[in-house]
Amino acid sequence: MNWAHVVLAGYIGAVIAIVVGMFRKKGWVGKISGAVIFVVAIIAWNIFDVHYLIPRESPEYGMTEEQKFDNAMRANPVFQVIREQEPALTQKIITQAVQMKNEGKSEQQVIDAIQPQILQLQMARLQQAPDANVIEYMKINLEQIAAVEKVGDDECFRFLFPAVKGGINPVHLVPREIMNRRMVGDMGMMRAAYGPGKHTVTAEEKQLALQDLQAISPGLVQRYGDDIQIMADPNKGIGKEKIACEIVQDLWTQVLKLPTARAAGVIRLMLSAEMQ
Question: What is the pLDDT of residue 68?
Fold first, then answer.
């Protein structure tokens, strides 16, 4: 099993769908606006080519599976930050991955098992990251979506909603330069969340973020009409892949037009544990 690929894919191959139906439940938005799901496609993929990992040339020959996985984690700069900040989680992931491999699980099954754990940690760090880091995080996400959209509407839809028609491997679709910046940005965000300038989410920030979301939702409904329901039920996007991709990008473009602190507040709110 290619542990380097598993580690990298497990880290950056993730998609979050966050349902704004929760807003309706709490009475924050109206019936139509409540149909909107704010989706963050937080996907990047393997930044190393397979030819770097040719088995015959590998210095890992003779190592145990746990040692190989540990080496792969050490080669990933973001996992270095995770190792520093969460050593217990790091060991848990290594043990789980090796156990699954020994049980005969596929590479994709291992990736699917470790992705949510990494993503949960990153979303927690985002709550304490400074505004600038949060904004950069979302800007790079949009660049990734746009890069896949250039390849095709179907690829973009699969990128955002892999559960509907199956996902894609964006390693050949997203430029290496964007992937590299994603890694650097994530490292900076996670370290800043532990630094002296870390952010504290206040009740006032949450309230303002809700108001901004209420202001954004009607515009999306006006532009896309009933197609906004694709966000609540992605299956309705079959045959409307282009529109689905446009809605997601439009949403986050509108958020990023807000003043920095307010845009960061909306992003934090939508990616917070309470909204998932």
Answer: 73
